[in-house]
């Protein structure tokens, strides 16, 4: 285990990666250009390590150093009291464990779909909680890759990573540009582009033909507005989840989970 450095000053320069973690605008403008992201909690930290991400440093509650005694590598470990952690980060670190990681080079859309059979494609999903929840569902329910329109939120933002329970590390993703013309890349690769919509005239997911289900790219829109007319026009088949009691839609995380399960329901048990 690397040496543990006790930090007593919240303004210590060594904690630069962890400053103002609750400032969404600051963090989303600062983290990607500087090639880092923050993982919160021991479980998420270990999933990031398992996925091959390289740690820059760790910041932990001084009473929890034994929890991470087996961490590999030589990234510095900083320990502090809860009060110092809170002042440095801007919130109560109730899980007691944070880590800063180097980002990996972003894959191309062609890379992530090369061996995929089912892909989720998100348009304008800029809520980090929803991004994390969709990735968790994708990992659990057989989605091989996720493609993001240019305006989607960062899957490696701390809240997205936390909500996904680290499953953002398990599903390869890429930005799809230009949008929505980039959807042609999926069609050229043999995918049927399905657009999930509450439109009453759409095809119920369970009534897709075998050919339509063989290799699918499922388009999901943002909470509220749903898919744009341009994305709908660029799709092959509008599909819907049949609803009861006059409910017109589900939130994106729930809708995605239902659709993911339906598209993979005939997979062999794993």
UniProtKB/TrEMBL annotation:
Q: Which UniProt keywords apply?
A: Methyltransferase, Transferase
Per the record, the domain of life is Bacteria
Instruction: List the GO biological process terms.
Output: methylation
What Gene Ontology molecular-function terms does this entry list? methyltransferase activity
Has UniProt tagged this entry with the keyword Methyltransferase?
yes
Q: Does the keyword Protease apply?
A: no
Locate the tRNA/rRNA methyltransferase SpoU type domain: which residues? 119-260
- Mind telling me which Gene3D superfamilies this protein's record contains? 3.30.1330.30, 3.40.1280.10
| PANTHER family (UniProt xref) | RRNA METHYLASE (PTHR43191:SF12), RRNA METHYLTRANSFERASE 3 (PTHR43191)
Query: What protein name is recorded for this chain?
Result: RNA methyltransferase
Please tell me the species this chain comes from: Paractinoplanes pyxinae
């Amino acid at each position: 285990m690397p040496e543990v450095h006790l930090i007593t000053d919240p303004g210590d320069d060594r904690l630069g990666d962890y400053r103002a973690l609750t400032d969404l605008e600051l963090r989303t403008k600062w983290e990607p250009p500087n090639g880092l992201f923050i993982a919160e909690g021991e479980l998420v930290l270990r999933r990031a390590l398992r996925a091959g991400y390289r740690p820059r440093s760790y910041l932990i509650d001084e009473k929890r150093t034994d929890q991470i005694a087996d961490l590999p590598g030589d990234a510095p470990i900083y320990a502090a009291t809860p009060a110092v952690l809170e002042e440095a980060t801007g919130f109560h670190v109730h899980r007691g464990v944070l880590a800063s990681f180097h980002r990996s080079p972003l894959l191309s859309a062609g890379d992530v779909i090369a061996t995929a059979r089912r892909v989720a494609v998100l348009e304008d999903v800029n809520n980090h909680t929803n991004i994390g929840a969709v990735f968790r569902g994708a990992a659990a329910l057989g989605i091989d890759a996720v493609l993001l329109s240019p305006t989607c939120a960062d899957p490696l933002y701390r809240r997205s990573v936390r909500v996904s329970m680290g499953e953002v590390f398990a599903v390869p993703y890429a930005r799809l540009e230009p949008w929505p013309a980039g959807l042609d890349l999926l069609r050229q690769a043999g995918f049927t582009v399905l657009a999930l919509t509450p439109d009453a005239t759409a095809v119920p997911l369970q009534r897709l033909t075998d050919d339509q289900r063989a290799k699918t790219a499922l388009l999901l829109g943002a909470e509220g507005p749903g898919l744009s007319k341009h994305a709908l026009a660029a799709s092959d088949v509008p599909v819907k989840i049949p609803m009861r009691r006059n409910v017109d839609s589900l939130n994106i995380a729930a809708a995605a989970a239902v659709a993911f399960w339906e598209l993979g329901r005939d997979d062999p048990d794993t």
